[in-house]
Amino acid sequence: MWNILNGEWRKLRRCQILFVGIVALALCPVVQYGTQLIVNPELRDPNYTFASLFDNVIWGNTQIFLPISLVMIGGWMIDRENTNDTLKNLLTVPVPYQKLLGGKLMAAIFLSLLFGLYSAAVTILTGTIVGLDGLSAALLLRQGGQVIAAAFFTCLVCMPMILIFGQIRGAYLGGSLLTFFLGYCILFFKSGVLLSAYPFSAALILAGFDMQAYNGAVQAPSMLLALAGMAAVLVLTVGILLFSHPGSRKEVHKKKKAGRKRAK
C-alpha cells in the first residue's frame, strides 16, 4: 500500500490539477473576508477578528472549496487510468484493483491534511495582511487544528463520490459539482436528525465546530448522530470499494489487441 501511495503522490506532484485545490483554498479566506466588505453596513460584524475569519474558512472549506477540490482531484486520479489507457495493465500486475483504489483514496486523505495545513497558513497570512485582531497561540492551536480536522473529515465524506465518479470516464468534473451542491445543503439543516447526521454537518461537528454559533442551529448537535453519519459514509465507501472492478477481461484483451494492430 505504501508503494501505491508513494507512486500516486509522485504522479500527483507533476500534474497541474493540483493547482485547483491550491487556488481554491487560497481564495477561501480572501472571499470570506471580502464578503464582510461588500455586505450592507448593518449586516457587517463590527467585531470581526481572526476567530471570525477562521470560522468562516472552516465553514467555506467544508461547504464549497474542499468538496470541489477533493472530488475533482481524487476522481481525476482514478479516471486517468482510463484516459491514459493504463487500466489494461492492471490484470498483468499483482495488485488487486481494490487495493489500487484504496491507495488512491489514501493519497486523497494525505492531500486533504496538507490542504488543511495550507488553508490554516493562508488564513493567518490573510488576516495579518488585512490587520485583524485576536491572533494568539491558543487560537492557532484550537482553530488551526479545526481547519485540519475539518479537511480530514470532509475528505472521508467525499470518498464515495471520488470512487463513483472517478470510475465513470470523464465524470469527475460533474461529480465535483454534485458534491458542491451536497455540501451547500448543510446551510439548511438547523434542527432534527440531519443537523448532526448529515455527512457534511457531521464533518464539522467531529472537528469541534460550533454549529449553533455559526449556522444558527436551534438545537445542540448530537455527537453520537455525527459519528453515526460518518460511520454510514465509511460503510458506503467500503461497499463501493469491494464491488468496484476494472472491467471485463474481454474488454481489456480487445484494447491490447487494438494496440498491437496500431503498432504494426
* Strands, total number: 0
Q: In angstroms, what separates the terminal alpha carbons?
A: 37 Å
- Which term fits the overall shape? globular
> What Rg is obtained from the alpha carbons, in whole angstroms?
21 Å
DSSP strand (E) fraction? under 5%
How many domains? The number is: 1
Q: What is the ordering of alpha helices and beta strands?
A: HHHHHHHHHHH
Which range best describes the helical content: under 10%, 10-25%, 25-40%, 40-55%, 55-70% or over 70%? over 70%
Count of runs of 4 or more consecutive helical residues:
11
Class from secondary-structure proportions:
mainly alpha
Question: How would you sum up the major sheet?
Answer: none
Mean pLDDT: 85
Show unreliable segments. 248-253
Transmembrane segments: 17-38, 58-78, 105-132, 144-165, 177-200, 220-243
Organism: Candidatus Copromonas faecavium (nom. illeg.)
Keywords: Membrane, Transmembrane, Transmembrane helix
Pfam families: ABC2_membrane_4 (PF12730)
Q: How would you characterize this protein structure?
A:
The chain is mainly alpha-helical. The protein has one domain. The protein is built from eleven helices and no strands. α2 packs antiparallel against α3, α3 (50-83) runs antiparallel to α4 and α5 (137-166) packs across α6. The longest helix is centred in the first third of the chain and has 34 residues, at 50-83. It starts with a helix and ends with a helix. Mean pLDDT is 85; it is low at 248-253.
